[in-house]
Amino acid sequence: MLVQRTLEELVLLVHNGRNTYKEIKKALPELTDNDLRIASLPMRIVKLSDRVLCLDHHPPSDLYYYRFVDEDKFSLSTYGEDLLHVVLKEKRLERLTIIAAAASIIAALCSLISIIRC
Q: Are 35 and 2 contacting, i.e. CB atoms less than 8 angstroms apart?
Protein backbone atom coordinates (compact mmCIF):
# COMPACT_ATOMS: atom_id res chain seq x y z
CA MET A 1 0.00 0.00 0.00
CA LEU A 2 1.29 3.43 -0.89
CA VAL A 3 1.81 5.74 2.06
CA GLN A 4 2.19 9.50 1.71
CA ARG A 5 5.95 9.41 2.36
CA THR A 6 6.48 6.89 -0.43
CA LEU A 7 4.32 8.91 -2.82
CA GLU A 8 6.36 12.01 -2.06
CA GLU A 9 9.65 10.16 -2.61
CA LEU A 10 8.29 8.74 -5.87
CA VAL A 11 7.29 12.20 -7.11
CA LEU A 12 10.71 13.63 -6.21
CA LEU A 13 12.47 10.75 -7.99
CA VAL A 14 10.57 11.32 -11.22
CA HIS A 15 11.01 15.09 -10.94
CA ASN A 16 14.78 14.64 -10.56
CA GLY A 17 14.99 12.57 -13.75
CA ARG A 18 15.14 9.12 -12.18
CA ASN A 19 11.97 8.12 -13.99
CA THR A 20 12.55 4.61 -15.34
CA TYR A 21 11.07 1.54 -13.73
CA LYS A 22 14.57 0.25 -12.98
CA GLU A 23 15.65 3.47 -11.23
CA ILE A 24 12.42 3.70 -9.24
CA LYS A 25 12.65 0.08 -8.06
CA LYS A 26 16.30 0.58 -7.07
CA ALA A 27 15.51 3.73 -5.06
CA LEU A 28 12.26 2.40 -3.55
CA PRO A 29 12.61 -1.38 -3.25
CA GLU A 30 9.55 -1.55 -0.98
CA LEU A 31 7.38 -0.35 -3.87
CA THR A 32 5.54 -3.26 -5.47
CA ASP A 33 4.43 -3.45 -9.09
CA ASN A 34 0.86 -3.21 -7.89
CA ASP A 35 1.67 0.01 -6.01
CA LEU A 36 3.22 1.40 -9.17
CA ARG A 37 0.17 0.36 -11.21
CA ILE A 38 -2.11 2.15 -8.76
CA ALA A 39 0.13 5.24 -8.83
CA SER A 40 0.35 5.38 -12.60
CA LEU A 41 -2.25 3.47 -14.52
CA PRO A 42 -5.88 4.51 -14.93
CA MET A 43 -7.60 1.49 -13.44
CA ARG A 44 -11.23 1.24 -12.41
CA ILE A 45 -10.40 1.19 -8.69
CA VAL A 46 -8.44 4.47 -8.83
CA LYS A 47 -9.88 7.83 -9.76
CA LEU A 48 -7.93 9.34 -12.66
CA SER A 49 -7.36 12.47 -10.60
CA ASP A 50 -5.53 10.44 -7.91
CA ARG A 51 -2.74 9.21 -10.18
CA VAL A 52 0.63 10.78 -9.43
CA LEU A 53 2.39 9.25 -12.46
CA CYS A 54 1.70 8.60 -16.11
CA LEU A 55 3.32 5.80 -18.05
CA ASP A 56 5.01 7.46 -21.03
CA HIS A 57 3.71 4.86 -23.49
CA HIS A 58 0.34 3.21 -23.80
CA PRO A 59 0.38 -0.24 -22.23
CA PRO A 60 -1.79 -3.09 -23.46
CA SER A 61 -5.49 -2.85 -22.78
CA ASP A 62 -5.42 -5.33 -19.89
CA LEU A 63 -3.53 -3.14 -17.40
CA TYR A 64 -3.93 -5.46 -14.44
CA TYR A 65 -1.59 -8.03 -15.98
CA TYR A 66 0.85 -5.52 -17.45
CA ARG A 67 4.45 -6.34 -16.51
CA PHE A 68 6.71 -3.34 -16.20
CA VAL A 69 10.07 -3.54 -17.91
CA ASP A 70 13.25 -1.75 -16.81
CA GLU A 71 12.98 0.76 -19.67
CA ASP A 72 9.42 1.91 -18.87
CA LYS A 73 9.46 5.65 -18.24
CA PHE A 74 7.09 7.67 -16.11
CA SER A 75 6.19 11.34 -15.94
CA LEU A 76 4.22 13.29 -13.36
CA SER A 77 0.47 13.63 -13.80
CA THR A 78 -1.29 16.88 -12.92
CA TYR A 79 -1.91 15.54 -9.42
CA GLY A 80 1.75 14.50 -9.24
CA GLU A 81 2.84 18.02 -10.22
CA ASP A 82 0.58 19.43 -7.50
CA LEU A 83 2.04 17.02 -4.94
CA LEU A 84 5.55 17.97 -6.08
CA HIS A 85 4.76 21.65 -5.53
CA VAL A 86 3.58 20.90 -1.97
CA VAL A 87 6.64 18.73 -1.21
CA LEU A 88 9.09 21.33 -2.52
CA LYS A 89 7.33 24.06 -0.55
CA GLU A 90 7.53 21.96 2.64
CA LYS A 91 11.25 21.34 2.05
CA ARG A 92 11.85 25.09 1.62
CA LEU A 93 9.94 25.80 4.83
CA GLU A 94 11.99 23.17 6.68
CA ARG A 95 15.22 24.81 5.49
CA LEU A 96 13.98 28.26 6.52
CA THR A 97 12.99 26.92 9.93
CA ILE A 98 16.45 25.44 10.44
CA ILE A 99 18.10 28.69 9.35
CA ALA A 100 15.86 30.70 11.69
CA ALA A 101 16.66 28.36 14.59
CA ALA A 102 20.39 28.61 13.89
CA ALA A 103 20.16 32.41 13.71
CA SER A 104 18.30 32.45 17.04
CA ILE A 105 21.01 30.33 18.67
CA ILE A 106 23.73 32.62 17.31
CA ALA A 107 21.85 35.70 18.55
CA ALA A 108 21.42 34.14 21.99
CA LEU A 109 25.14 33.28 22.14
CA CYS A 110 26.09 36.81 21.08
CA SER A 111 23.82 38.23 23.78
CA LEU A 112 25.36 35.92 26.36
CA ILE A 113 28.88 36.91 25.33
CA SER A 114 28.03 40.63 25.51
CA ILE A 115 26.52 40.16 29.00
CA ILE A 116 29.60 38.27 30.19
CA ARG A 117 31.93 41.01 28.85
CA CYS A 118 30.13 43.72 30.77
A: yes
Considering the entire predicted model, what is its pTM?
A: 0.73
In this structure, how many other beta carbons lie within 10 angstroms of the beta carbon of residue 88?
13
* Amino acid (one-letter) located at 87: V
- Cα 110 to its chain centre, rounded Å, is 39
Three-class SS state of 53: strand
Q: How many CB atoms lie within 10 A of CB 27?
A: 14
Give the mean pLDDT of the chain. Answer: 85
Amino acid at 102: A
Q: Are the C-beta atoms of residues 75 and 56 closer than 8 Å to each other?
A: yes
Amino acid at 21: Y
